[in-house]
Amino acid sequence: MPKLSRRDAVKTVLSGATLASLPAVSWPQEGAPIKRKGNIHQSVSRWCYQKIPLDKLCAYAAEIGLKGVDLLNPDEYAVPARYGLVCSMGYAGGGEIPSAINRVENHARIEDGLRKYIPLAAKAGVPNVITFSGNRAGMSDEEGARNTIAGLNRVKKIAEDHGVTICLELLNSKVDHHDYMCDHTSWGVPVVQAVNSPRVKLLFDIYHMQIMEGDLVRTIQKNIDWIAHFHTGGVPGRHELDGTQEVQWDGVMRGIAATNFRGYVAHEFVPARDPLTSLRQAADLCDV
Asked: Exposed/middle/buried for 217, CB within 10 Å: 0-12, 13-18, 19+?
């Protein structure tokens, strides 16, 4: 199966599905949405569904009982609210995957972005914004950790003052993002612990951490105080959460629910089949 990253998605999203194929899926009709159990607050990542208009994606997400839409730009923050949803994670100038907060020379640029966009996120009810470590590029993990702590300390008061959480994302460096520094929980947790702010935590991407370390439920439960958000994706290939891949998603969701986690679990898989059917099936599977 092909391996897709967020960078590739605009070119290859939906694995060949086009808008012409979408009429086969019923768009939401008026009426009550599916009522979920409420133990897991599910969301959907926008970039995986680029060919579906955002308003239609939000309408469908609301119909199948999701609570939010992930990874929207500032000019899109308010769209989910039209459908009773939130933007559960926003872009806010927090850097790019290969070049971000582990390099001191990026700190001023990232601070400027967060200072500009976090107030907009707060106004729109966006609970989380994303940032990245950046790649190693020859830098030691120890130096990168020191720089990342310094950069996050520089911006944490902005987040605290506005009630928005800055989420440092864990990504794999084995398959999708070679040389990325924040590629293990054992690196990310000490960094956010050192910053020691209720508004600076990790985005634990289950897809990426299954590739890097496995042992998902125990790792999540041990470190839940430092995790603000989750992403999903089938391993291998980042496709549907089904029998073609290796993670037992209902078990992982029960592990998360057992911690009384009240944040969001956002589906970040690229459908290889009918996109809306796949999203509905993922929502059903994770509704534990």
From this structure: middle
- Three-class SS state of 205: strand
The whole-angstrom separation of Cα 217 and Cα 206 is 10
**Residue whose tokens read 């534990």:** 288
Kindly report, residue by residue over 105-119, the tens digit of the pLDDT.
999 999 999 999 999
* Number of other CB atoms surrounding residue 49 within 10 Å: 25
Q: Tokens 């400027």 label which residue? A: 112
Mapped onto helix, strand or coil, the DSSP state of residue 229 is strand
Amino acid symbol at 14? L
Strands 41-45 and 68-72: parallel
Residue 203's nearest CA partner among 112, 121, 131 is 131
Residue whose pair of structure tokens reads 């839409």 in the numeric block: 69
Other beta carbons less than 10 A from residue 257's beta carbon: 16
Residue 196 DSSP SS3: coil
d(CA 157, CA 178): 31
3-state secondary structure (DSSP) of residue 39: coil
* Residue type (1 letter), 63: E
Q: For residue 275, what are the CA distances in angstroms to 26, 98, 193?
A: 12, 29, 38
Tens digits of per-residue pLDDT, 260-270? Answer: 999 999 999 99
Helix, strand, coil distribution of the chain in percent, nearest 5: 45, 15, 40
For residues 275 and 50, what is the distance between their CA atoms, to the nearest angstrom?
11
Query: Which amino acid belongs to residue 213?
Result: E
> CA–CA separation, 154 vs 198, rounded Å?
15
